[in-house]
Amino acid sequence: ELAYMFDSWTKNYINTARKKVMGSNYNEYDYWSSSEKDANDAYYVSANDGSKKTANKMYSKSVLAFLSVE
């Protein structure tokens, strides 16, 4: 879902939805998805270019909070 969001919507649209929940824009960081690859690794998406990657869960990455996106 996170990868789909970055693939399908513009950053302006995402920021509008995020401001409704958090009162601020998102930053162009790497964001964890809710999906795990295995016991040690999980998927994340780069907000900068929309690329999908995996990393060890011990690494620190940001998360995005949404109640809903219309």
Describe the structure.
The two termini are 14 Å apart. The protein is globular and about 35 Å long. The chain has 70 residues and is of the alpha+beta class. The relative contact order is 0.25. The chain has helices at 2-8, 11-22, and strands at residues 30-36, 41-46, 52-56. A 3-stranded antiparallel sheet has the order 1-2-3.
What's this entry about, in short?
By secondary structure, the protein is an alpha+beta fold. Helices cover 27% and strands 26% of the residues.
Q: CA-to-CA gap between the ends?
A: 14 Å
User: Biggest sheet: strands side by side, in what order?
Assistant: 1-2-3
Structural class: alpha+beta
Pick out the low-confidence regions: none
Oligomeric state of shown chains? single chain
Number of strands: 3
Sheet having the most strands: 3 strands, antiparallel
Globally, the shape reads: globular
Number of helices: 2
Mean pLDDT: 77
> Into which percentage range does the β-strand content fall?
25-35%
The share of residues in helices is 25-40%
The ordered string of helix (H) and strand (E) elements is HHEEE
What does the radius of gyration come to? 12 Å
